[in-house]
Write a structure and sequence with these properties.
Elements lengths: L7 E5 L7 H11 L3 E6 L6 H13 L3 E4 L5 H14 L5 E4 L6 H4 L8 H13 L1 H13 L4 E7 L11 H21 L4 E8 L13 H10 L9 H12 L10 E4 L9
Helix pairs in contact: 1-9, 3-6, 5-7, 6-7
Bound molecules: nicotinamide-adenine-dinucleotide.
Length: 260
């Protein structure tokens, strides 16, 4: 039922092969989407190399640097997309950042700058990106915006700290974007993914314990895979979910519904 033939979209957040965004890209490509990918430049250039490798594999028509902490970088991405495509159908925001020290100290000791940085990169960035792509989605008669959240948005998860408040704000922002853009037939949703071992999650203290608990205490007695998040992403980005907006959909093997 899900067919992305003739559909175009941007995916931000591929870092390496373990990235949730990587699996989302593979899934969307399999379903026929035309893709634009971005990478964050870091000293060793590994993200760029990984994104270019994935881009080659899926025939990405846009591959561009985008640091969402920089307004000009976001503007440049929107400009390139307008020039190359003019119109687009979806946007995937699968990225987050918190300084390691801030993540790993008691929540009340989070630094002012660390709090702002985590919320700026992980949450605020969705606003200018949505604002930039909305006119191009309007030309298509609508579109779908997707971000990736975590249960730490609504429950106090050990060691998730400043990312918890950033994810809570991400989910709230999604509802406000859904309200703002709904009249244009542009939808905005979140996937709340279960714990998965990735580069980002390795920065959370005792993440192995979080994974163990998620596996043992989920309804399905296992943790979720990147590919499973990718499949739900395709659903939420496609017309098959045309009546769903402003929602957070849990893809966590039923961890969130258990009263342990
Ligand atoms: N892994 C998990 O257990 C889990 C669970 C729920 C939600 N999530 C969320 O999924 C999303 C993807 O994370 P992941 O687990 O795939 O890890 P990941 O490390 O593979 O991806 C995070 C991405 O964020 C990007 N990023 C960081 N700062 C950036 C900036 N300034 N500009 C542009 N990009 C930037 C990195 O380049 C990286 O590609 C994040 O929002 C994360 O919070 C992860």
């Amino acid at each position: 039922m899900i067919d992305f033939s003739g559909k175009r979209g941007l995916v931000l957040g591929v870092g390496n092969q373990r990235s949730i965004a990587w699996a989302i890209v593979e899934q969307l490509h399999e379903l026929g989407a035309e893709l634009g990918l971005t990478y964050l430049t870091e000293p060793k250039g590994r993200f760029e190399a990984n994104v270019r490798k994935l881009g080659d594999k899926v025939g990405a028509s846009i591959i561009q640097e985008c640091d969402v902490g920089n307004d000009d970088s976001i503007k440049q991405l929107i400009k390139t997309t307008e020039k190359e495509w003019g119109e687009l159908d979806f946007l995937v925001h699968s990225l987050a950042f918190a300084d390691y020290d801030d993540l790993n100290r008691p929540y009340s000791e989070t630094s002012r700058i660390g709090f702002m940085k985590a919320h700026e990169i992980s949450t605020f960035s969705l606003l200018p990106l949505s604002n930039g792509v909305a006119p191009m989605m309007c030309k298509r008669g609508g579109g779908s915006i997707l971000s990736i959240s975590f249960i730490g948005a609504v429950l106090a998860v050990p060691n998730y700290n400043v990312m918890g408040s950033a994810k809570a704000a991400l989910e709230a922002s999604t509802r406000y974007l859904a309200r703002e853009l709904g009249p244009e037939n542009i939808r905005a949703n979140n996937i709340s993914a279960g714990a998965i071992r990735t580069l980002s999650s390795s920065g959370i203290k005792n993440f192995s314990e979080m994974l163990r608990v998620a596996g043992e205490h989920s309804a399905m007695l296992r943790t979720v895979t990147q590919a499973e998040v990718g499949k739900t992403a395709a659903f939420l980005l496609s017309d098959v979910s045309s009546g769903i907006t402003g929602q957070t959909v849990y893809v966590d093997c039923g961890y969130s519904i258990m009263a342990n």
